[in-house]
Amino acid sequence: MRKGFIILLALTVAIAITACGAGESTNSGNKANESKAENKGSGNAPTGAADEEIVPEEGATLLVWDGKDGLPFLEEIAKEFTAKYGIPVKVEDQGAPEQLEKMKTDGPAELAADIITLPHNDLGNAVKSGFVLPNDYYEEQTKAEFLPAAVEAVTVEGMLYGYPRNMETYALFINQDLVGDTPINSWEDIVNFSKGFNDLKENKYGFMSQLTSLYWTYPFFSGYGGYIFGNKETDAADIGLNNEGSVQGLKFFQSLRDILPMASADTTDDIKRSLFQDGKLAINLDGVWNIGAYSNLKHKVTMIPLPKMPGSDKDPITLAGVKAYYVSTYSKYPNAAKLFARYSTSKEALLKNFEITGFIPARTGMDSEPAIQSNEMVRAALKQLENSQPMPTIIEMGQVWTPVEQALELIWNGEDVKTSLDKAVEDIKTGIATQDQ
């Protein structure tokens, strides 16, 4: 106790000296004391909280922004956090795109949230704009406790920024009432089943996916060794969307027109979801965020990870999105904000989040939790997440989407695969060069 008192006294003196020298600067809280202290809490923190907690600033209050889907959990965890630490927390409804816009004005005006919630593909812009602080105090714990893909997604140029919350990707939803005992273990199985099931007059299809977005079609590239950018999606000079593996994968993709004789414009989210819900689509490549909705249909729905592509020994990689909490650069109470972000992403907290919202936790080892273990589709989603990679966050990614979409449209309509992909990569390189000028 005497040792702890001396440490706290030293911290108090150090903070006081720093405050005297900092004056009234609006960013005076951004460099608040980061030293660890013997503050283990009262024992009722969620399991997985760091053994040594950061010391929050005296008199701290916090504001958190998140979209509507994240508010029910945040409101509950905020109450727990306030009860434990005595730090008031206010939660406001603010969508991700609006958060970045508001940070530009509300940050300098000292009205911005202390913690914001963003998809990882917005992180590059947030870092470039100077909106978020690194996750430095809990860096080691975050890297050890979260899925590698999630950690990678909230890292920019080697610096960890985010406190990962949940991950999203896609897999195969199966209407078991339609498929019956037919095994669906390979793409060959999918093709063979669809040929026997399709009834175009009745608007019934064995398999369906969105066709012209790189997000949904990426497994056809990655399943044979294709990729977007080299060096773990950080080297924009190395584009792999027209390499040998990509060409092979897109030739297989093109062959699926035999079992899905539709214009690509007719495979939208709304159409595909409606067919699946009405029992007219048997196998649906769709997002894991639909697990809740598809669990309540009148027919039995299961889900499986994507099988290997024909003739390939590689697991097809899906693109993943990662939602995470970030501490604002403008926060007057960065220590308290970091403590809240950590508290809200502990094992116990993310399990509560899953039970309230259905968000699939980005933490490792969550598949052993009874609430998750009992849900077959969530287990399949976690399995697919092991074979996923976050969408690239480098700014050059913005030049990729449209050229690839145009190439996919041409390929689906029967144009030469290699020629179409070469043109897409040429356009991407031109876009990047123009962007860099």
Secondary structure elements and pairings:
Layout: H1 2-22, E1 62-66, H2 71-85, E2 89-93, H3 96-106, E3 115-119, H4 123-128, H5 139-145, H6 148-153, E4 155-156, E5 159-160, E6 163-168, E7 170-175, H7 176-179, H8 187-197, E8 205-208, H9 214-222, H10 230-233, E9 235-239, H11 244-255, H12 269-277, E10 281-287, H13 291-294, E11 301-304, E12 318-327, H14 334-343, H15 347-357, H16 370-373, H17 376-386, E13 388-390, H18 401-412, H19 417-436
Parallel strand pairs: 1-2, 8-10, 12-13
Antiparallel strand pairs: 3-12, 4-5, 6-12, 7-10, 7-11
Helix pairs in contact: 2-15, 9-11, 18-19
What would your notes on this structure say?
By secondary structure, the chain is an alpha/beta fold. It has 2 domains: 44-168 and 321-389, D-Maltodextrin-Binding Protein, domain 2; 170-320 and 391-436, Periplasmic binding protein-like II (D-Maltodextrin-Binding Protein, domain 2, 3-Layer(aba) Sandwich), CATH 3.40.190.10. The protein contains 19 helices and 13 strands. The strands form 4 sheets. Strands 3, 6, 12 and 13 form a 4-stranded mixed beta sheet that branches. The N and C termini lie far apart (60 Å). Belongs to the bacterial solute-binding protein 1 family.
Task: Summarize this structure briefly.
Keywords: Signal, Transport. This protein is an alpha/beta fold and 437 residues long. It is built from 19 helices and 13 strands.
Tags for this model:
four-stranded mixed beta sheet, globular, disordered N terminus, 43% helix, D-Maltodextrin-Binding Protein, domain 2, 19 helices, single chain, 2 domains, alpha/beta, 437 residues
